[in-house]
TrEMBL record:
Keywords: Glycoprotein, Lipid-binding, Secreted, Signal, Steroid-binding, Transport. This is Corticosteroid-binding globulin. PROSITE patterns: SERPIN. Residues 1-17 form the signal peptide. Residues 48-404 form the Serpin domain. Belongs to the serpin family. It is found in: Secreted. InterPro entries: Serpin_CS (IPR023795), Serpin_dom (IPR023796), Serpin_fam (IPR000215), Serpin_sf (IPR036186), Serpin_sf_1 (IPR042178), Serpin_sf_2 (IPR042185). It comes from the Eukaryota. SUPFAM superfamilies: Serpins. Pfam families: Serpin (PF00079).
Length: 405
């Protein structure tokens, strides 16, 4: 938390720029370089690349990931990779090793991880990594020490000859770490894996401007032209940062959680989801942050839990980053014994959206005499969701929400 005291003014999503900060050292002689923010551009570029890949590979389906959590897990895994695979992994994550050293990358992730875990007390967030290895294997001291120092990795022995017991052990561990919010992370009935890295994150924020539970109503969510489902729809009418984009076919609002998190809800025009996703980038977020204006909005957002679970090894292979699954020589720096034949890397992210705020809110709708009618934006069809952390500039979540069954 000492890092928080070093900065007295943070400009986020303002006209001064998404990646701009004004900083004042509270202690003379303290370096102004911020390792956690040095990672931000690369992490964000990787986030959109991964997100677009997942959307393209799962047409018509929900996609939900925590990019910063995935980047953290893969950067950590590079500590056990051989020379070429290590460079391939870090390059695939967007890092130029001639400009940023490996030590600086890992130190930056260490700061990001620490700051996110020490987020505002009003948030419910549980995130972490755990490595389960077969009882016949022993970690190399260098890998064990480095991953503990930079990433607070938990390494636990499991008996993969008893697959049912090992699966139960993994699921119980994650369930306990997330206070029961993530259950059954691992469901495979059998596997030849001898090393399993699990990466998990659960998040439930507290709105700076809450929704009133009394205004929540059951409404239709239109999955497509022929399918609809019923969902609880939250409502508020207030001054909200809003934009009807003139370049991409969409409307969007920006809401704030207490603490450091900000949320974009993006509603593409009908049939234009793919167009909007193709246009997402750091520059797009910058342009939106410069263009959003405060407007009176009647806002409807579903009250839902959104989740995504992925085998990252297969995804990275498909993206051409690294073959994490089948080549034993790639990860010779993890265990003292011969490298395991199969390494699995699993990611699961869950977000809960509800009405909760710090203060109770009255269910009244205020209209000023002579004021124009409020805009109405109704998230009752497929939409895009993005959550960023102000302080670390991390992309906490990216989602494409298609079906709320």
């Amino acid at each position: 938390m000492m890092l928080l005291a070093l900065y007295t003014c943070l400009l986020w999503l303002s006209t001064s720029g998404l990646w701009t900060i004004q900083a004042k050292d509270s202690d003379a002689g303290v370096s102004e370089r911020n390792p956690h923010r040095d990672l931000a551009p690369s992490n964000t570029d990787f986030a959109f690349t991964l997100y677009k890949h997942l959307v393209a590979s799962a047409p018509g389906r929900n996609v939900f990931i925590s990019p910063v959590s995935i980047s953290t897990a893969l950067a950590m895994l590079s500590l056990g990779a051989s020379g070429y695979t290590r460079k391939q992994l870090l390059h695939g994550l967007g890092f130029n090793l001639t400009e940023t050293s490996e030590a600086e990358i890992h130190q930056g992730f260490r700061h990001v991880h620490h700051l996110l875990r020490e987020s505002d007390a009003a948030l419910e967030m549980a995130m972490g990594n755990a490595l389960f290895l077969d009882c016949s294997l022993e970690l190399l001291d260098s890998f064990s020490e480095d991953t503990k120092h930079y990433y607070e990795l938990d390494a636990l022995a499991a008996d993969f000859q008893d697959w049912t017991g090992a699966r139960r052990q993994i699921n119980e561990y994650v369930k306990n770490k997330t206070r029961g919010k993530i259950v059954d992370l691992f469901s495979e009935l059998d596997s030849s894996a001898m090393l399993i890295l699990v990466n998990y994150i659960f998040f439930k924020g507290t709105w700076a401007q809450p929704f009133n539970p009394e205004s929540t109503r059951e409404e239709n969510f239109y999955v497509n032209e022929t399918t609809r489902v019923t969902v609880p729809m939250m409502f508020q009418s207030s001054a909200i940062r809003y934009l009807n984009d003139s370049e991409l076919p969409c409307q969007l609002v920006q809401l704030e959680y207490t603490g450091n998190e900000t949320v974009f809800f993006i509603l593409p025009d009908k049939g234009k989801m793919d167009t909007v996703i193709a246009g997402l980038s750091r520059n797009t977020i910058q342009r939106w942050s410069d263009s959003l204006t405060s407007s009176q909005v009647d806002l409807y957002i579903p009250k839902v839990s959104i989740s995504g679970a992925y085998d990252l090894g297969g995804i990275m292979r498909d993206m051409g980053i690294a073959d994490l699954l089948n080549n034993q020589t790639h990860f010779s720096g993890i265990t003292q014994e011969a490298p395991p034949k199969v390494l699995k890397v699993l990611h699961k992210a869950i977000l809960q959206l509800d009405e909760k705020g710090l203060e109770a809110v009255a269910p009244t709708k205020v209209s000023l005499q002579g004021a124009p009618d409020p805009l109405t934006i109704h998230f009752n069809r497929p939409f895009i969701l993005m959550i960023f952390d102000h302080f670390t500039w991390s992309s906490l979540f990216l989602g494409k929400v298609v079906n709320l069954t």
